Structure formats: C-alpha cells, structure tokens
Amino acid sequence: MDAARVDWTGRYLNELATQRQLSGHTIAAYRRDLLELATLAGHDDWPALTHADMRRFAARLHAGGQEPRSIARKLSGWRGFYGWLSRQVGLPANPVDGVRAPRRPKTLPKALAVDAAVQLLEANRHGHPEPGELCNRAMFELLYSSGLRVSELTGLDLAYTKADGAASLGWYDAPAAEVVVTGKGGKMRRVPVGGPARAALAAWLAVRPPAADGSAALFLSSRGTRVTPRVVQQRLKTHAIQAGSPVHVHPHVLRHSFASHLLQSSGDLRAVQELLGHASITSTQVYTALDFQHLAAVYDRAHPRAKAK
C-alpha cells in the first residue's frame, strides 16, 4: 500500500483497538480485509472509489471462489472503514452502503434413498430386544412413517389426557391409526401412522413401564421420564452408526425422507404440505427439487443416451 493508505489503515485500526477495544484477532482480520481492498483497488485512491467499484470488487471476490459469508464480512469491514474515512476527508457518501454479498445458495435438505431408509429402520434387530430397543424402534419408525418434527415426537402422550386444566398437545390415537400433534404456530394436525410403525408402537406399549414422573408420555428415557429431543438425536445417531450408515442421520433426515418419498410416489405437493404442517407451500416446494434429483438419477442410470460416450 502507498503511504496514505498505510497511514489511514494504521489510524483506523488504532482507533478500533483503543476506543472500541477490539481483540487482536479481530484487528488482524480487519487489517487483512483492508489489504485485500488495496489489492482490488490497484492504484486508485480510496476516497475516489465509488459504489460501482465496490460492487465490482464483491463480484471479483465471488468469481474467485470466495464464499458469500466471507464476502459479506469483508463488505461489513470496508463499510466501517469508509464510515471512519468519511469523517476524516469529508466523503459525500459511503461507497459500500447498499453493496451486498451474493446470496448463499439454498442447500437442499438431506434425504435418504428409499432403500437406505428401509435398511436403516430394519437394522440392528434381533430375537429378544430390550424395552429400550423397542422404544427406539417405535420412535424411529414413527419419525419416518409420519414425518414428525422431533419436538412433536417427544411431546406425544399415550392418549389424549386432560388434567388440572392442562390438555395433551399431542397423542397417539391407536384406533384411528393416527398421531395428533401441535406444530409450529400452535397448529394442530392429524397424521396417519403406517403399518410398520403401528406394529413397532404395539411392541413398545406392551413393555412400556409406568412413567417415573407419572406422566402420560408415549416415549420414555432410561430414567422413566419423558424422552427429550436430544436423547432421540443421540439414540438415532448411535443406531445409524451401528447400522453402517455412510451419512450422519438425525431426526430431521427422516422427516425430509418422509416428505421426499411421499412426493415421489404421489406428486401431491399440497398433501405433503398438510402432512408436514407447513404454513406456506413455499416451505414444501424445496422437496420438488429433491424429487427432480431422484428423476435425474433414474434418467442417468436408465436412459441409453444419458451419458456422453
């Protein structure tokens, strides 16, 4: 950097260190960002840089492979610097104001293939399972069968109960082969329970001990209290590792798999929205991309002209 830039940089960083008392690590990060700005600006004076220049610099960083989050951080640092510089030399406007980093690409939810989901649920079975294993099996089957959020799963009661003015927010309606859950926004919905999940629930209920806290919780921890979302996550992770799953499996993966597989089979986006409890169909439309990925994979495997020779 030329002498003027070195002077401005030193004064600005010194002010950050002494007046704002930022850490040495943060100061070093600001210094690197200003050095990068100097490289991008070339021989142009910093006070002469415009809004268009800053947009061009952000585009160059993106084209160079930098992540949107990293670019956003640098723009924030430059914006702070130009706010300070404008007070020193009287800039008409901060050239970084209004410049935004490129949007981060939306990541698709992770979903298992149908065969992988079935293999996961069928794994680790033996002739005489302990009650804890039966509880796990019922929880995992229900997560995939009904696409529940883990908080909805752990909130389920054995049946609808109302005591001391408090009523169940979720319960298993065995005669109707449904679960009733209260989702986000307090919205209640009924979701069907498939045959394997009903069988797993029946096996668990046959050995379920009374809850240690006297609650009507459907699923219990090893201490006999209502199971927590964290415990479900840990148990599913352990089960998946023992099953040899090549990917990390958490409860939301089973929910995503439920939605993706149901959409592949039915094509009914509105029905999937209702079963998932999404307030807006926009939240559900992400699964159409998963469905297309499935179709594209089938095409690549099956079509004789899909791959270039």
Q: What is the SS-derived class?
A: mainly alpha
Average pLDDT value?
Answer: 86
Oligomeric state of this protein: single chain
What portion of residues belong to β-strands?
5-15%
The strand count comes to 5
Describe the sheet with the most strands: 3 strands, antiparallel
Strand order, main sheet: write it out: 3-4-5
Describe this entry's structure for a reader.
The chain is mainly alpha-helical and 309 residues long. Helix content is 55%, strand content 6%. It has helices spanning 3-18, 24-41, 51-63, 68-89, 114-122, 131-146, 150-154, 195-205, 229-242, 251-266, 269-276, 281-284, 286-302, and strands spanning 162-163, 166-167, 171-173, 178-182, 188-192. The protein has a three-stranded antiparallel β-sheet, with no helix packed on it. Strands 1-2 form a two-stranded antiparallel ribbon. It starts with a helix and ends in a 7-residue tail after the last helix. The model has no long low-confidence stretch (mean pLDDT 86).
Which tags fit this structure?
mainly alpha; two-stranded antiparallel ribbon; 309 residues; three-stranded antiparallel beta sheet; single chain
Secondary structure layout plus pairing:
Blueprint: H1 3-18, H2 24-41, H3 51-63, H4 68-89, H5 114-122, H6 131-146, H7 150-154, E1 162-163, E2 166-167, E3 171-173, E4 178-182, E5 188-192, H8 195-205, H9 229-242, H10 251-266, H11 269-276, H12 281-284, H13 286-302
Antiparallel strand pairs: 1-2, 3-4, 4-5
Domain Tyr recombinase: 107-300
Protein name: Tyrosine recombinase XerC
Subunit structure: Forms a cyclic heterotetrameric complex composed of two molecules of XerC and two molecules of XerD.
